């Protein structure tokens, strides 16, 4: 058996739906922004719209899109549905309606082979909410550049069950398609689990999670120290993420908008 990055779509959703769970996200001024209180119950965030584009780990020629959002009703208890109708939403040029059957979310998941038009990446896109006067949810509209969809070109990942081999005695260079129009940089991440039951998957006994904020030049190198003490045959996840974040303040309400694009794969360390 080997580790896969199948859990990463859930990780990205966690970053988007609960920014406090992530140590870093992208902001519109190019800096990393740190959140400590962005969950709806104890923060000033009134709503959240997001879009994710990721490479399908079972078919690297296909992409998966997750588009959605929530408008939070902070007057409800945690046991109740914290979401409410904010009107129609536009997320990176994709139109969405409020859905009561998915806990009040704006929600769509589909592949690049779908007949549904994909969200906009690599260009300026429109984001909007029509608002809902009955719930005192204001309308807003803005445009922003969303970086190009990201694909890792090195290491070369064949499939989820066969990690790419890499010598633990050599630096690791990660390559991807650079976006010269993206001023916000990328996150290059190496990680593996530290849970004891994963030792049978050839994990090192202690976990690793290196997240580096780097310019979007298409290449980043981890020096040999990152792997020199990791046991042979250990499997690591390699991930690159880029995106944009906007905060919209209107009529005493604050809305968060995120667009992320990512790719990932696994490497096995050899001598």
Count of DSSP helices? 1
Q: Given the helix and strand composition, which structural class is it?
A: mainly beta
Poorly predicted tracts of residues: 6-42, 194-204
The span between the termini is 20 Å
The main β sheet shows up as: 8 strands, mixed
What is the ordering of alpha helices and beta strands? HEEEEEEEEEEEEEEEEE
Number of strands: 17
Net shape: elongated
Mean residue pLDDT: 79
What does this structure look like?
The two termini are 20 Å apart. The protein is 4% helix and 42% strand. β3 (45-55) and β4 form a beta hairpin. The chain has two domains: 8-149 and 245-262, no CATH class; 152-238, no CATH class. Strands 3, 4, 7, 11, 13, 14, 16 and 17 form an eight-stranded mixed β-sheet that branches. A four-stranded antiparallel β-sheet has the order 6-5-8-9, with no helix packed on it. Strands 10-12-15 form a three-stranded antiparallel β-sheet, with no helix packed on it. By secondary structure, it is mostly beta strands.
Write the topology of this structure.
Layout: H1 8-17, E1 25-26, E2 32-33, E3 45-55, E4 63-71, E5 89-91, E6 94-96, E7 106-111, E8 123-129, E9 140-146, E10 152-154, E11 164-167, E12 172-176, E13 186-192, E14 208-214, E15 219-222, E16 235-250, E17 253-270
Key words describing this protein structure:
271 residues; mainly beta; 2 domains; eight-stranded mixed sheet; four-stranded antiparallel sheet; 1 helix
In summary, what is this structure?
The chain is mainly beta and 271 residues long.
